[in-house]
């Protein structure tokens, strides 16, 4: 990380952000200059209409940089106040903001994340709701390439420097991330942290198991499943807890509308009486059903590819015995590495289209639906190969291999005068499964790290170097777009131009990575108990490289809020549940040593296999309930905080009401007199009069007048009791 | 129901309740008269201390009847106000009660149920919380036999009369029940109603299936499972919905403390700062683990009994062929009918003790824990016999029968000179399963009905007749306990004395019945599709007989509140899930006609069986999620109501805050001037001065001062664009 400083190319001034809230990167395609210019005017007007100060500067070739800063603090504060009220109404905040704004903001100051979030909303939300309604890259704003805040270099550097020395993230670190990049990002790091901490156990235990129990130990499988349950249930609670501590519990209730949402009609909301744009849930349901064929397509395409490459590989590596074997065996790997990315990017595109088709009102719903589909894709690409080896190749290999002759025949076509190809007797390769798991849990992780973290930085350095040359060439004829920058802005503008070039940071990608990793641990680590160790190391680096990614290789993210890791939670649950099944199956198949059934299913008592699966699964379900119950019993700081807030709120309200109530209360003072009917002269007279008029009041009245007050009742009661006694004695004799 | 009037033996006056809120039945054991008398005095004092008027009258032999009525309406209103505030604080009510009490109570009058609930709380809750702290039959109040409200005969009669003619309960009926007997009872009837309505489908479909598909049809099984899922998920929503409509959503949060709770220490609540009595959750957890051995004991005892009776029966009915066969075959049935009740009452006692041991703080938690255990018991007694037939007798009969020779040998002992017993060749009886299911789903239900509904009434009539004679004898020497009743009270006192004799009504018993019934439908109806019809009829009667039970054969229940059917929900879920497994298994075993495997497991491909179970179960889980999702999409009156309330609340609060906010807002009026930095003479001078002092302000200031206001920005932007264009043209050439 020593190279940080020159990554940021710290010329004086590049540190400062010149108080800019958001930079708008505005493209001007040479062909459509007129439209672009018109739209530009609108842009500036829209911005200033909602109270932004603006500055414009030349961007890189064919683009402008518009700098926006909220004009007056009071305007910002009004926003803050308004949104905090909303939070309170939705039950996110337990107390309403204090009317005295100045005092209030001194008590609960505005974090940078909050400021940026609100200003972003001010820029993007529709005019109707008092925003500028600027939606990057869509509709009339198609020239607006991006709206992004500027990195805080000083902070980023300090942050990464600290981490590179620190072993784990503590509350303070998370709080910092939260204040800078918002809860959504903070939740990712919180998850990563507590997942990595939990990894310590499977790492240690896995090492022990590897040394003492070897592979495919039922005991390891058991403990591993148990661990995954505990982790899952723990996180569910931890998540809720963090949400409360960060004061974002229930923010998912406050939904951001999707600008792309298309209503199929308006109806008057029976509740609010407002006319709202609606989309029939049944139409959506119908479209959601498309997920089924989508999943099938994925299985067919990806599954087909993987399976066939798998077959070819087996043929070449374990049957074929001719020339160029060592080169040919690489063929399937090459095929996969080339085709998988192509196909999955195609399918991801399909998923995106499908999700758009489902046409959700809110951004969260949209994101969740998309994640579902992405998860299906990743499930296939990540786990299918191992599934094939474990549950097809190993048990049925010998049966299936004969069908691989097709390759032989096709191969013969190409060989001269179709002489048959030299082959060797097929033998199941018992190490294949282990090798594969190791590949996915170690090699793949490392490769991935390079692709994700190192490559971009290298790229960036290279380009930046090129650009330096470029700009120098230019600066003779002045400025990137032929205009000289003011000397004391140059450095600043340079860095902005650079940041404008970076991609957006997408947290879902990082989540996906972690979830898939968890999957390997839950599903297959029984094959190779060291998995945990590998992941532990990987994640230590992962946390840092992700930080670097956010800080240096991507635009600063918009600091959105979140109250959970969202749809990924279900994925975790699903994987940990599936783990109970696969582990059981693997343990059963390979119960006599790592060789397992030698490619012929005859050896396997399928009913026993199914029984063990059935058993394992239900054991899992029971254990999960128990763990859930037990963990639920523990008290947690966040929940405590919430209880405290609710309590104080109740107390306050009750005190307001109390006064009254006491007033009511004292009308029936305690003491024996309490229940007594006040016998006043009037009453007696009244009674007398009633008698004189009609007999003696109603039976009910008389019933209640027989004993005047408690004292009477006690007296009479005593008499009755003694009479009872008397009667008993008489009956005795 | 024509006999109603004389069931209530309507002498004039027995209709009226003399405005009594609660009757306290006070026992005076001859031996402990002194203590009883002392306690009596305390009782009356305690009552009058919290504002009750009291009257005392002789009860039946050796008992007093204390009549309590809340002394002043204002005192009652204070209570109402206080508890409604509490509801509001806990989010049960969305709006705080209006300060003007009179007006408020005119808007939201006090229902009879509410009045009775609050007065009961006033009597029973501890002195510390402002109650009289009277806990019947425990501690110093051990002479207080019962504290019960009086039935409203007029209402009850009308109620039952209406029902006996009506086909189904509508909202109005439920609302009435709710106002009289509280939500807890109302929820039972609501559940019964919607369950019965849902039964129409399996009844009709079952009939069709029975006619067309016969028994063990996979299609019936499929539809039946689907139905049970839909019903379960529907009820979950319906329940929440009712809770909202009845304004009790979340009352389960307001917990009633258990007087029997024993704390193992005090700790200061970190939240409220109060010292609260606590009981370590881990101790409790440890004790809860006792449920496992408890379940095992139940299985062993009951299971053992059932299994052995089952074996004997088979031996006698299908092997033994000697004398007295027809009588002997009754033996096992006799054994069961005698022993099962004994054993299960013993085990229920055990369950009660266990639950007390678990020592819960709140009544709900206690009840829930108890229900769990009861469910285990009922599960065994109700379903085990069928399980044995279906999954032991039918598939393994032939294998197991040889072991039944033990009976033969033992029998030989007793027969003269041990000559062997005449036996016949064992043949699986294919009708046994069907017969058994029919027995449990028809015969048992009818028997149960008589035991539960008819018998008590008959008993009651008999006793009441006897008592009449008794009392007449007595009245010569005056009154039941040797004292004459005032003539215009006599009738009233008589009825009170009668009601004092009745048992308490326990809704859990009725729930248990329905849940067990649902179980038969979900688990075994594939054996005999007519099950649905039988239940439909049964429930029509059940609803009425339950009503009669509440109205006439039990004390009026304390009208507690509830926001769901509580722990029974889980039982339903469990049964409907288990149903998917059993149905699949049954269909598989009996797929070739109702004879199924003829007692020898050889015929069964166990892996296929397991596979079909595995498949069915997971299909079930998927379907459940889908149904849950789909039903969740539908809008419901209750939820709508809630949304409406929340909305109006938000609106009100927002309006309060709004004024302010607008004030804030206008400081940044819209229009181009909006973002503009006000350029005043002062500013210019200031600027000039700065220049003269030190160069030209900070780079940041200068950055933002280059373009004064949006108009400037636009201007400069335009220039830049055109320059861009110029550059492009030059580069083109």
From TrEMBL, chains A, B:
Membrane topology: Multi-pass membrane protein
The organism's place on the tree of life at top rank: Eukaryota
Domain Anoctamin transmembrane: 177-645
Boundaries of every Anoctamin alpha-beta plait domain copy: 19-144
Keywords, comma-separated and alphabetical: Membrane, Transmembrane, Transmembrane helix
Chain segments annotated as transmembrane: 185-212, 218-235, 292-316, 328-354, 375-396, 437-458, 518-537, 565-590
Compartment(s) of residence: Membrane
Primary localization class, coarse: membrane
Region feature (Disordered): 683-708
Coiled-coil parts of chain: none
Record-linked PANTHER family: ANOCTAMIN (PTHR12308)
Name of the protein in question: Plasma membrane channel protein
